[in-house]
Design a protein that fits this description.
Elements: H1 2-13, E1 33-36, E2 41-43, E3 52-57, H2 64-75, H3 77-80, E4 85-91, H4 101-107, E5 114-116, H5 121-126, E6 129-131, E7 138-140, E8 144-147, E9 153-157, H6 165-175
Amino acid sequence: MRVLMALVVAALMSPTVTADTELKVGDVAPDFTLQASDGQSYTLSEFKGKQAVALAWFPKAFTQGCTIECKSLAENGHLIKKYDVAYFMISVDDIEGDKGNKAFAESQDADFPLLGDPSKQTATAYGVLRDFGGEYGEMAQRWTFYIGTNGKILAIDKAVKPATSAEDMATQLGSLEVAMR
């Protein structure tokens, strides 16, 4: 009986897989449908079998590091566009409003969509949501997810450098052998 109780207690105490479990390379990327700065909605599963996807999570529109990152992707996007990949910046900001992702994209002349996840459901599914405290509260961490045409995560960059974001993304796409256009 003690052995059985010990096994039950051990089973209850062991970690379980939940929505909060950290995603890893090889995992199926969580599907989503989100509004974008270009007025469209994007659903991840619509790219499956067609095109790789890069999701560049960022903390907050109009902040210093995020502005630098967006500027890098806008000015050097031609490096990324050599690959058959749909790429997006994505945050928990609203799309509309003075501080929303649409206004942010326009201010940086972004020629790629910025996605908004104000419900924070997608950020939670990707494990990027973090409480930054103070006036900022919960925001996404600056991580980039590379997703293959099979819908699985190919790589996760948790050390994104905003100033060289586009160059680094293009290098990573090459390393992952993403098809050229």
